[in-house]
Specification:
Shape: globular
Distance between the termini: 6 Å
CATH class: Mainly Beta
Strand content: over 45%
Number of helices: 0
CATH topology: OB fold (Dihydrolipoamide Acetyltransferase, E2P)
Strand order of the largest sheet: 1-8-6-3
Largest sheet: 4 strands, antiparallel
Number of domains: 1
């Protein structure tokens, strides 16, 4: 397997859960299937899901919940 770094598709604020009292979509060590939601990026009250395009295991996040991210910035590592 190969570890791949997945990048932010657009700039905004990264959220690991759909709300403050909701569980995170994925944690380090979780299995990831194609189509799974990994997080959300919010831009001007519009939320865009970060969807897994490959299956594997989520190794590590490069950003924290509510961090500002730029397009192309590393979000997480996937062992695919």
């Amino acid at each position: 397997m190969t570890v791949k770094t997945i990048q932010a598709p657009l700039p905004g604020t990264f959220y690991r859960a759909s709300g403050p009292d909701e569980p995170v979509f994925k944690s380090e060590g979780d299995a990831v299937a194609i189509g799974d939601t990994i997080g959300l990026i919010e831009v001007m009250k519009s939320f865009t899901p970060v969807i897994a395009e490959e299956a594997g295991t989520l190794v590590a996040f490069h950003v924290e919940n509510e961090d500002a991210v730029m397009a192309g910035q590393a979000l997480y590592d996937l062992d695919a």
